[in-house]
Design a protein that fits this description.
- 60% of the residues lie in helices and 4% in strands.
- The protein is built from 4 helices and 2 strands.
- Strand 1 and strand 2 form a beta hairpin.
- Helix 2 runs antiparallel to helix 3 and helix 3 packs antiparallel against helix 4.
- The two termini are 29 Å apart.
């Protein structure tokens, strides 16, 4: 699960190690395990599902913190976050789009 990239000079760098050790990612990983165990997510969807969920959450957070959504009023943020999470969950569980 550790992504490897080539840094300048050809040296391999495990740039995702910090992410994999973060409490937030570990919570996501355990949740994905629980969803698979409960039969809500097919085991073959788990690896890409974990990456998709992390990417969506991280991307939205960055847009809200430093991006074009940084000035979004608080009353508009919550429905946006809920909508993104609902969409990710629907995709992970193989439900029709929201």
């Amino acid at each position: 699960r550790t992504a490897v990239c080539r840094a300048e000079g050809g040296q391999a760098e495990h740039h995702a190690a910090g992410i994999l050790e973060s409490p937030a990612f570990q919570l996501l990983s355990r949740t994905m395990d629980d969803l698979v165990a409960a039969g809500l997510v097919r085991p073959e969807r788990r690896p890409i599902g974990e990456s998709a969920a992390w990417s969506a959450a991280h991307g939205l957070a960055m847009l809200l913190l430093d991006g074009p959504l940084a000035g979004l009023p608080a009353e508009q943020r919550e429905p946006l976050v809920e909508g993104v999470l609902d969409t990710v969950i629907a995709g992970l569980c193989g439900l029709p789009g929201i």
